[in-house]
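Subject: for your reference before the review

Hello V.,

The reviewers asked for a structural picture of the protein, and I figured it would be easier to keep everything in one thread rather than splitting it across files. Below is the amino acid sequence we used in the manuscript, unchanged from the supplementary table.
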Amino acid sequence: ALIGWLLSSHAPTVALQISGVLKPIGGLWLNALQMTIVPLVFSLLLLGIAQASDVASSGRIARRALLWMLGLASLSSSFTALYAPAFLTLFPTDPQLLAALQSGTAPTPAGGNVAASLTALVPNNVLAAAAQGAIVPMVVFALCFGVALTRLPAERRAPVLALAQGVADAMLVIVHAVLWLAPLGVFALIVP
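And here is what came back from the structure prediction:
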C-alpha cells in the first residue's frame, strides 16, 4: 500500500502506465473478498443465534450475560454513530481524493418515506436481496431463520447448523487466502 501511494504521488506517469495492468488485479482481489460476505454473514448469524439460544436456555446467568452483551453492543454502536463524524473531522482529507471517491459512488437517494424504509427491511425475495448485496434485509432474514431454527427439535436443527458451520468454515478459508494476497491487492487498488 505504501509503495502504491508513493508511486502515485511521486511518479504519476509511471503509476498510470502500471495501473492499466494492476487495475484488474485490484478489482479481482476486491471481488474475491466481497464474494464471501453474504454466505459468511448468513452462516455466522445462524450459528450465533443457535449458540445463543443454547446458552440462554442453560440458565439465568447466561441470559444476563447475553443481555449485557446486546446492551453494550447497542451502546457502542450508538456512540460510534453519534461521535464518529466529529472524530473524522480531526483528520483532513485531500480534496482530490475526496472528489475521486465521490465520483465513484452511487448517488444517494433522496429522503425517503419511513414506511418504505421499514418495509424494505424484510425482503420479499431473500436470494434477490443477497444477489444485490442488500445486507440489512439478508441479516433480517437470517435472524428470522435462526430464531425459527431454535424452535425446531434438535435432530431437525442439527443438519442445518452443520451445513451453516461448513459454509462458515469454507468462507473463512477463502477469506484467509484472499487476505494473504492483501499486499498485492491493496497495491493494485492504490496505484491510480
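For the response letter, the relevant points are probably these. The longest helix spans residues 60-88. Residues 64 and 88 are 35 Å apart (CA to CA).

Happy to draft the paragraph if you're swamped.

O.
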